[in-house]
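FAQ

Q: What does a record look like?
A: Structure on top, sequence underneath. For example:
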């Protein structure tokens, strides 16, 4: 939750109603969000409504109709000159500080990924390191939505550039 609060200060959190609700039986449709300031992009399920982009242009939030499923994506400069492994260690510590049980942690070539449980929710984070920037997205959603969210999380992970 701490991570959400930090990002909430940066990104707008107003709710936008969805035109249609996602059901467990329907295949999700996808759209692509491209960030002009940092140059990253990712595909997201259209059952998550895009909120206004942050004033500084670093990212955006996407919310389900009930506000319980949240996708946050943002870029930032590597102001502290951290390595990818150091940024991974900080993200891991931040999630644990928020009471998260991390069940998956991997550092790959140019990225890291984390997932697990925080409160009654599942979280999933991926961070890319490009030049002097970090590009991050994370999902947080109720455990009961796991079946619905598996495909969108995997699609966002694979499309994040």
């Amino acid at each position: 939750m701490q991570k959400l609060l930090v990002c909430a200060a940066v990104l707008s959190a107003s709710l936008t109603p969805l035109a249609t609700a996602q059901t467990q039986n329907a295949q999700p449709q996808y759209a692509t969000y491209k960030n002009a300031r940092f140059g990253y992009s990712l595909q997201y399920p259209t059952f998550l409504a895009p909120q206004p982009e942050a004033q500084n242009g670093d990212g955006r939030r996407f919310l389900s109709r009930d506000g319980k499923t949240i996708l946050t994506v943002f870029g930032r400069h590597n102001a502290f000159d951290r390595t990818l492994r150091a940024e991974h260690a900080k993200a891991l510590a931040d999630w644990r500080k928020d009471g998260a049980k991390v069940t998956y942690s991997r550092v790959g070539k140019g990225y890291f990924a984390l997932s697990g449980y925080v409160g009654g929710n599942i979280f999933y984070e991926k961070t890319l390191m490009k030049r002097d920037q970090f590009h991050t997205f994370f999902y947080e959603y109720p455990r009961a939505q796991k079946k619905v969210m598996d495909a969108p999380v995997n699609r966002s992970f694979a499309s994040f550039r």
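Q: Is there anything notable about this one?
A: The longest helix spans residues 84-97.
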